[in-house]
Amino acid sequence: MRVKRASGQCTGCQRCEAICSFQNTGKIVKKNSRIRIKKAETIGKFTPNVCIQCENAKCLIACTVGAIYRDDEMNIVRVNKDKCIGCRKCVEACPLKVMMFNGEYAFKCECCEGNPACVNGCFIHAIEFEK
Amino acid sequence: MDLANRILHVDLSNNINWIEEISREKYIKYAGSRGLAAEILFRDMKKGINPLSPENLFIVGSGTFNGTMAPCSGRLNVVSKSPLTGGIFKSNVGSAWGANFHQAGYTLLVVHGASEKPSMIRIEDDKVNIESAEHLWGKNIWETNFAIEEQEDFDYEIMAIGPAGENLVMSAAVMFSFYNAAARGGLAAVMGAKNLKAIIVKGEKGIVPIKAQEFFKLSEALRHKILAPASSKRYWNLGTANSVSAVNAIGAFPVYNFQTGGHPDVDKISGHELVRTGALKARRSCYSCVFACHRFSMTEDGKATGGPEYETISALGGGCGIFDLQELLYLDHLCSLYGLDTISSGAQIQWAMESVQRGTLDPEWTEEIMPRFGDAESAAKLLKAIAYREGKLGNLLADGIKKASQVIGNDSSNWAVQAKGLEQSRVEVRCAYGYALAFAVNHRGPDHLCSQPIAEMGSRENQVVLIEKITGDRKYASPYQLEKRAEIVTWHENVYAITDSLGFCTFTSLSEYENNPETMAQILSAYLGIDVSMEELYTAGERTISLERAFNVREGFRRKDDTLPRRMMYEKLEGTPNPDAIITPEKLNYMLDQYYTLREWNLKTGIPSKEKLIKLELDFVADEFDVLGIYNEIGGTESEG
Lengths: 131, 641
Hints:
- The structure holds 2 protein chains of 2 kinds.
- Chain A is α+β, with helices and mostly antiparallel strands.
- Helices cover 20% and strands 23% of the residues of chain A.
- Chain A has a two-stranded antiparallel sheet with strand order 1-8. Chain A has a two-stranded antiparallel ribbon with strand order 2-3. Chain A has a two-stranded antiparallel sheet with strand order 4-5.
- In chain A, a hairpin with a 4-residue loop joins strand 4 (68-71) and strand 5 (76-79).
- The radius of gyration of chain B is 23 Å and the shape is globular.
- The model of chain B is unreliable at 636-641 (pLDDT under 50).
- Chain B is built from 27 helices and 17 strands.
């Protein structure tokens, strides 16, 4: 399963960021969000960036301590924050720049256990959930 | 909990900053930044301060819900003493700037003093720096944004002034990112006078409402509520320009400097035309918005704009007799480059065009640029001349049409469509009497941005129901009557004030009418963890309006200033369904009497009564009025004069 870009009609409202950070950390702040909106104002382009749970996940390969693993049941890539040593190799390896780091451990979209808050909160369906 | 309840003071003269905390009770008192800013301006400024002097305070205030998932809560307030009107001036704007400022832990930024050299304020949570902006001075808005963004891993939100603000132009807009403008009142000139080119912010502290889960649930419920009516889709489809053709069809779309109320070619510059021709490339939102009324458009040769809005289409299009979409988009593009208010700039150009039409501008003014209705090339030249104060005419118009018409004379004040110095926004108030009253009593001057009494039109059932609730009878949901306009305007002003303070877009509360004092009070209660009743919140709106009025009273504003542009009062508009499309002084005075009585303000002067101020817990205002002897001029403290 994964969250992915859908309609191409993202308006750059960033409401998904507020909802994601709240759902996952209890705090409303962009830096805690698993999804990030890239805003290119001069060409009118707004792009949601979020982990697409790569089959051949570069972050997982880059991790030297086994903190990143594939959850086969949900078919997503997860981070075990207790194992993470904060080396940020995964952050560097991610081609989509959607592996985040909060100063202690790496984190990423894990699809809110199958009910992604960002997708529920997007009024224009610029992102969708693929089971 | 983390309510972002701090005020950041920055003193440019002394390069210092300090923090003041806002109690939860203060949020209940004012709902948020618009009211809080008014209190600070009244409290910390003396009467008669020159708006362009270091003593003027420049305040940027996040809405209480900025940076959260509350729907359409990305609006913030810029508040200062306006160099254009000489009164307090709140300018509301959307973007992600307020969200970041709020997530950095602040509700208000109060800028004191002035820098000796061009400067920029950088805010990253508790880190606040005043930096040199000498490399940015002289750059237009796009160049400024690009130059600031050059820094590696740049992740700040930018507000800045363009050449118009630097050159102390009275129609200079404070620009947020590339297109969003706190446009009116010349507030960018206040920044320019402070040598303040930009303020950039990044917020990483975050916000935690006290009853966070409830806040989230109420936000989602409100989102579904405001999107439920089919009418809400029009913002997405056509933006604020959705009504251009319809308003033109009933003869209420101002054309040729309000000389007529419509033109067959207006359809060529409508919101529909923007979509049909493919000029519309994308739809944009303020932070957390679920309407997305903002546009992203391009001319055929690639000139981008963040509009055009309804107001721009009338001000730079129909008002100037320009009905070519490509030309209009280019003019809108120029305003976003220079950092200009499209409404006032358009009004300045229209006034010049009508002056040429009537032969009242001597050749010395038109040697370089000859403005004529329909001539987009001269309009484009004038925009640049105004922004840079180039040439005689550009420099004249840059001071606003009130002053310009005083300089030119020759009866040109008759077609200077302004009051309190502010150029009127593009609403044909001769066709809607509630709007006329709202424009006259607005602390800013004649525009729709402190009260939008659109319910008086009665064009939808929920509008009619609201009018019945306010006035007691559905029959008052009709715009050509004087009765009950005071009640309707008062309700709209109060609700507008709390909508602004909370950071909501007024389209949620005063266009769709789905977000009301009750829903707002519920969300505020969850945010603060204190039960706030809708009556308390409504009173916060009334308090804000009274405080803004009090600021202007202290500056010398009286009933005589609550007026309309001459054209609205002495020239009848033809071709509308209203057979009596004029707001005569008698009509206006009748409505003002009703309004002051309802507000408990003195009938002769418009000064809030002492009793009313005390009832609103504005004792500090009443005390100052006593000290200044303001009540002496109305022979005591009674509300009826």
